[in-house]
């Protein structure tokens, strides 16, 4: 009996020891499987070998990052004794993004089926180095064997630069951090009421006139926007980090900035939202927006264009007594403004498809009955789970970005002073627990879950008037989002995550980012 007891105690100690060892390695997002051994690696330089030419850009990326941490790097032409980092394609991995990291004291090997998988292996490696033990002229840490792949394919973050404009350095910093935490879609909200932020060659007034003004200061006299050159630069920067940028041109509502530049396309609005809509009854409007989308499609290689479609009712009352819209209604047998909106979205959706792209829209787009094969729905109205159910039941690829808990313009706690509230807050813990915590309320049929493409957080910026505020509202919620998007449900553990956040805080300090500190959540 006592022998058996001893055996059980031994097993417990071993397992406990293993758990502790695994927990001493701190990664965000937490991987699918990790084994930590007693052996240690020591890295004093990176002699990187990659098995195929397609991996060269990943090797270059790694080399640059190693140099930033003070380790000299070089890319080796042939596999030899010196090579202590090996990147290699491996057909055994099942999915596109799945990678493996094998470590021995003298070699770290990252493998995967595709360059993107290798890229994620590199991010994991960089985190291990970031959190490793600093030696004189090197970094050491325990050898780990990791197998990893994401829970969701769409791991997104949206930034609204119409309400306030932040510029390319801030965007690049966000892309850096997104990549580090394995997020892969950057949704760029570039047009709305206060400002139009993307240069369109054919319609220069969109930026020269529409680019002036922001939420805090509508009278701002400087036009703030991205030139075509800057857009290309940022797209390339994101591509190096395997982030796809999804541009949004919001229509037919939220169109005020464009209408300020070209009043002939305005469909009117209300006293609180003047010139809020594009005019759905004028053919010229479809030509104008078709040209805009054509340029946008040329600038962004992503296979999607987001055409908005949200909150049109804020301005479409003005349509009710417009003679051209009444004519359109008669001609197309449309009964009300909602159907006019559907007609408009259909036509613009067709334009997007003709450009060879998929249509992305806010969940109101469902009312226009788009086709399931080429449309992605963004469910944002958290208080309408029936909309999510409808989207999934009809088979639409659906991205979950409900206001609660995924709107990062919403406050994280009661004490915070400046931000939006919607019958509650969006605390770190709720972001982390998404979607399991909410899922019970949605009542989704099991099969319909397969249509959930992924999750995304949205940073609207009416109340984000400077970079410091942007940082405070984004971090570390972005880390929680990343883990919610990547880590398998059964591997999530909030306590463990808070522990690992220590490393994120150190990194954010180094970046000079002003974040919400979960260890000391004072009001800001
Ligand atoms: C709703 S979400 C909006 C945005 C606002 C946001 C503020 C959505 C599709 N439309 O225009 O900025 O709420 O939280």
From TrEMBL:
<dbReference type="GO" id="GO:0016020">
    <property type="term" value="C:membrane"/>
</dbReference>
<dbReference type="InterPro" id="IPR017853">
    <property type="entry name" value="GH"/>
</dbReference>
<dbReference type="InterPro" id="IPR015882">
    <property type="entry name" value="HEX_bac_N"/>
</dbReference>
<dbReference type="GO" id="GO:0030203">
    <property type="term" value="P:glycosaminoglycan metabolic process"/>
</dbReference>
<dbReference type="Pfam" id="PF02838">
    <property type="entry name" value="Glyco_hydro_20b"/>
</dbReference>
<protein>
    <recommendedName>
        <fullName>beta-N-acetylhexosaminidase</fullName>
        <ecNumber>3.2.1.52</ecNumber>
    </recommendedName>
</protein>
<dbReference type="InterPro" id="IPR029018">
    <property type="entry name" value="Hex-like_dom2"/>
</dbReference>
<dbReference type="GO" id="GO:0004563">
    <property type="term" value="F:beta-N-acetylhexosaminidase activity"/>
</dbReference>
<keyword id="KW-0326">Glycosidase</keyword>
<dbReference type="Pfam" id="PF00728">
    <property type="entry name" value="Glyco_hydro_20"/>
</dbReference>
<feature type="domain" description="Beta-hexosaminidase bacterial type N-terminal">
    <location>
        <begin position="26"/>
        <end position="149"/>
    </location>
</feature>
<feature type="domain" description="Glycoside hydrolase family 20 catalytic">
    <location>
        <begin position="152"/>
        <end position="487"/>
    </location>
</feature>
<dbReference type="InterPro" id="IPR015883">
    <property type="entry name" value="Glyco_hydro_20_cat"/>
</dbReference>
<comment type="similarity">
    <text>Belongs to the glycosyl hydrolase 20 family.</text>
</comment>
<dbReference type="GO" id="GO:0005975">
    <property type="term" value="P:carbohydrate metabolic process"/>
</dbReference>
<dbReference type="InterPro" id="IPR025705">
    <property type="entry name" value="Beta_hexosaminidase_sua/sub"/>
</dbReference>
<keyword id="KW-0378">Hydrolase</keyword>
<feature type="active site" description="Proton donor">
    <location>
        <position position="311"/>
    </location>
</feature>
């Amino acid at each position: 009996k006592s022998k058996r007891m001893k055996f059980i105690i031994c097993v417990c100690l071993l397992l406990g020891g293993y758990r502790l060892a695994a927990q001493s390695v701190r990664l965000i997002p937490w991987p699918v499987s990790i084994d930590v051994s007693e052996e240690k690696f020591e890295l004093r330089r990176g002699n990187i070998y990659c098995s195929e030419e397609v991996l060269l850009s990943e090797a270059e990326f790694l080399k640059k990052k190693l140099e930033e941490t003070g380790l000299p790097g070089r890319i080796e032409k042939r596999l030899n004794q010196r090579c202590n980092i090996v990147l290699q394609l491996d057909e055994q991995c099942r999915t596109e993004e799945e990678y493996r990291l094998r470590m021995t004291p003298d070699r770290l090997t990252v493998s995967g089926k595709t360059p993107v998988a290798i890229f994620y292996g590199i991010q994991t490696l960089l985190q291990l180095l970031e959190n490793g033990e600093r030696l004189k002229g090197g970094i050491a840490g325990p050898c780990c064997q990791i197998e990893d792949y994401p829970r969701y394919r769409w791991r997104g973050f949206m930034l609204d630069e119409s309400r306030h404009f932040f510029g390319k350095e801030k965007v690049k910093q966000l892309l850096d951090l997104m990549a580090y935490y394995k997020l892969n879609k950057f949704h760029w909200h570039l047009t709305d009421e206060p400002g139009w932020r993307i240069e369109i060659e054919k319609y220069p007034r969109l930026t020269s006139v529409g680019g002036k003004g922001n939420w805090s200061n509508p009278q701002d006299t400087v036009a703030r926007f991205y030139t075509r050159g800057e857009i290309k630069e940022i797209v390339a920067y994101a591509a190096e980090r395997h982030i796809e940028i999804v541009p949004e041109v919001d229509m037919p509502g939220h169109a005020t900035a464009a209408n300020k530049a070209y009043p002939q396309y305005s469909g009117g609005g209300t006293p609180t939202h003047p010139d809020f809509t594009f005019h759905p009854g004028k053919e010229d409007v479809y030509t104008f927006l078709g040209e805009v989308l054509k340029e946008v499609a040329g600038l962004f290689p992503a296979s999607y264009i987001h055409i908005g479609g949200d909150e049109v009712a804020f301005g479409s009352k003005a349509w009710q007594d417009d003679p051209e819209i009444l004519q359109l209604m008669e001609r197309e047998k449309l009964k009300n403004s909602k159907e006019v909106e559907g007609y408009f979205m259909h036509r613009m959706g067709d334009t997007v498809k003709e450009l060879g792209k998929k249509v992305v829209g806010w969940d109101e787009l469902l009312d226009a009955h788009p086709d399931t094969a080429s449309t992605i729905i963004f469910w944002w109205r958290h208080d309408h789970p029936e909309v999510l159910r409808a989207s999934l039941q009809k088979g639409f690829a659906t991205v979950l970005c409900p206001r609660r808990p995924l709107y990062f313009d919403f406050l994280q706690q009661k004490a915070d002073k400046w931000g939006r509230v919607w019958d509650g807050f969006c605390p770190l813990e709720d972001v982390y627990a998404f979607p399991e915590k909410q899922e019970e309320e949605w009542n989704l049929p099991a099969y319909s879950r397969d249509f959930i493409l992924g999750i995304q957080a949205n940073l609207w910026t009416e109340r984000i008037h400077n970079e410091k505020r942007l940082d405070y509202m984004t971090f570390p919620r972005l880390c929680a989002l990343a883990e919610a998007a990547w880590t398998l449900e059964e591997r999530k553990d909030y306590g463990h995550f808070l522990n690992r956040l220590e490393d994120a805080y150190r990194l954010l300090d180094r970046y000079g980012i002003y974040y919400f500190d979960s260890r000391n959540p004072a009001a800001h």
